[in-house]
Amino acid sequence: MIQRLRQLVWAWVWLMILLAIEVGASFLPLGPSARPLVLIPAGLMVGVVATVFMEIGRGPEIVRLFAIASLLWLSILLGLGSLDPMTRVMYQVRTATPSDAITSAAH
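RESULT FIELD:
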């Protein structure tokens, strides 16, 4: 019982350290190319929660299979979701001014 409690406390400490890293990184002036580095602590937090709190490593094989399948589907959904903004094209639209409306009405 004491060992399990110690394990949970250490997991909580690691989660708080990773949270502090993420919050601290949010205040850094990172360029767009360095922003994916902020996902590293988030991925480590997922790993801590999955191994310590959810005990995926001690579960049957079907639990591990579903955990891996969920990561696969999550990567597919995020990949397809990121294709939309990456493939959009910004077209220049000329806006009409009031003087354009007067000259076109005169003709």
